[in-house]
Amino acid sequence: MKMSFGKKLFLQVLWCFSFIDLSSQTRSPYSFVVREAQYTRLCSTKSVLTVNGNFPGPTIRVHRGETIFVNVYNKGNYNITLHWHGVKQPRNPWTDGPAYITQCPIQPGRKFRQKLVFSSEEGTIWWHAHSDWARATVHGAIFVYPTKNTPYPFPQPHAEIPIIFGEWWNTDVNEVFTQSIETGGAPNISDALTINGQPGDLFPCSMTETFKLKVEQGMTYHLRVVNAAMNLILFFSVSQHNLTVVGADGLFTKPLTRDYICISPGQTMDVLLQANEEPNHYYLAARAYSSGVGVAFDNTTTTARVEYSGNYTPPSSLSLPYLPNFNDTGAAFDFITRLRGLPERYPRQVPTNTTTQIVTTISVNTLPCPDDRTCQGPNGTIFAASMNNISFDTPNINILEAYYYHINGVYQTGFPRFPPFMFNFTADFLPLTLNIPKQGTRVNVLNYGATVEIVFQGTNVVAGIDHPMHLHGFSFHVVGYGLGNFNQSKDPMNFNLIDPPYLNTVIVPVNGWAAVRFVASNPGVWFMHCHLERHQAWGMETVFIVKNGKASNETLPAPPPDMPPC
């Protein structure tokens, strides 16, 4: 798609003018150089993709409502995109980041200046690669502070500490991804979980590098928690200490004090740790919550050390904290359903009169194996995944540019608003005919200002499991959860329309449902997908196109002049 010099100059002028109202809030840009670096874990060294040589990558620090720029230089060997997860990017989908959805990848040797428009976000969010499996090592935290002279809705902590959970493979993650696509089977599980890039004391060649939280008795610490794991929902806790959640997905919440926390890939939390125990060493530990029967997962435990200051003799070995069993759906469901929003700080009305209702199944599926291949999915098939029985085909031209420039043949409208087949979605045994989805690039088109309700209905097709569903460009009110099949006549009567959490990633419980609501007030193209990386690769995703409104501040501006070419 080549454009004339005159048209490109016109777009540059438009792009520059679109910054004028924000120029007083901008500052020096961040520089992100994507490049390979050598890292040693689990007694072996390999080359991994990083930003600025760091794993995890650099932390971005901003205040609420600021606009910043990140200059991304791809000096790696693969195409790359970066996504600013939880940044709603009002009227700015052009630099949101998902490959072939809002941009084509940044090719090796090229660069892209990405604009990050912060609006209502506060607390902790994050950034990560959004192409293939690069995000395994290309990710970092974003700390969003309240506007200057505005206090936290909780006592000022003594210090803030990032806690970034991840997964580590001894082999090249690109090979793990490529092998799973070529064979049609599930990707190999990781060799270790990590905290801030380190596996912890329980792994070989790891103890000296275990992450340590240095604390003083009587002080409170703000843990900025990110689950950057590729495929694992996690339980985590601290020995003999309670944890208080005060924020989730970039907005503060009502305090929730528990002895463990459940957090999915894509989710972030602001958590207060009170150092109120006897001076000693204590473990912070995390391990998987995996509800899929027969689904292989990394069942190791990663640890960090909470080390009190003072004169004492630490024990030669530490005991692990309480963590629910890996398949304890009740513990996970009990935690996620107790989060509450903070409407007194964010006085936005929960939509009550929805104009657009979508009920979508989210399923793991299989596709037949071609005659010329040997496939390693169930019974010799190829793993797939779907929403409303459509497994998403990612195009080779990005959807946002196809929409903006009216390029035909890249996507189709008409994503179904209701499941095409009605059956007992969560039954123990389902007909094999339900396993095979349709394939296509179907999108949802929404009018500007539409009030939208989405009910995500998990199914037991092939294998039921929890699904963390993430929506770009928006946060949504999570108004309800349930186990089993959603009942349209009964379940909405129990929706929380007073103080639901306002999230960008919702855990849909295994063989259950979750309901969310939002107002479609952000024009552009926005991705929605499962944040378990294997499910996204298999097609559990769709796209929302929000049409322009009538006012100039309700319309999609022109693209930046340096959009990466396809």
TrEMBL record:
Biological process annotations from GO: lignin catabolic process
Family annotation (Pfam families): Cu-oxidase (PF00394), Cu-oxidase_2 (PF07731), Cu-oxidase_3 (PF07732)
InterPro entries: Cu-oxidase-like_N, Cu-oxidase_2nd, Cu-oxidase_C, Cu-oxidase_fam, Cu_oxidase_CS, Cu_oxidase_Cu_BS, Cupredoxin, CuRO_1_LCC
Principal location listed in the UniProt entry: secreted
Annotated SUPFAM superfamilies: Cupredoxins
GO cellular component: a single term: apoplast
Localization, UniProt: Secreted, Extracellular space, Apoplast
GO molecular function: copper ion binding; hydroquinone:oxygen oxidoreductase activity
Cofactor note (record): Binds 4 Cu cations per monomer.
Alphabetic keyword roster: Apoplast, Copper, Glycoprotein, Lignin degradation, Metal-binding, Oxidoreductase, Repeat, Secreted, Signal
EC number annotated for this UniProt entry: 1.10.3.2
Entry superkingdom: Eukaryota
The reaction(s) this protein catalyses: 4 hydroquinone + O2 = 4 benzosemiquinone + 2 H2O
Signal peptide: 1-25
Reported cofactor(s): Cu cation
Sequence ranges assigned to domain Plastocyanin-like in this UniProt record: 34-148, 161-311, 433-549
Family label: Belongs to the multicopper oxidase family.
Function statement: Lignin degradation and detoxification of lignin-derived products.
PANTHER family documented for this protein: LACCASE-15, MULTI-COPPER OXIDASE
Protein name, UniProt field: Laccase
Organism, as annotated: Phaseolus vulgaris
